[in-house]
Amino acid sequence: MEDKFKRKPAIECSLDQLGIDSTARIAVICNVISLNEELLEGIVSDGTREARIFFKDAEALDECKKKSIVRLVGKPLVSSQGIQLNVEFVQGIEGIDLQAYRKLLALEKKLFSKQ
Prior knowledge:
Blueprint: E1 11-12, E2 26-36, E3 41-45, E4 50-55, H1 58-63, E5 69-79, E6 82-92, H2 98-112
Parallel strand pairs: 1-2, 4-6
Antiparallel strand pairs: 2-3, 2-5, 3-4, 5-6
């Protein structure tokens, strides 16, 4: 039985690649700079830009720890005031080799863009 509703896959990107017209779901690897557990929000940086992040519930926030490396998936809102990301889910990726991961993403993009 097929699911009636399917989500498009998130686009792997960096925060500096987002423009005002960015509305697609994105996935970004970043460092958690600060968290406000009461307001369910925080600030992250991927080394190119910072973004404010907002969580729907405390469960997703629990995956984030200050100064940890995470992969966030969500919908961005880009304005002249900066980037906001409404987080759908969080993947903790402590211990990942970021350099190897970024090389893999670049290779994947190169291979699949030719199709």
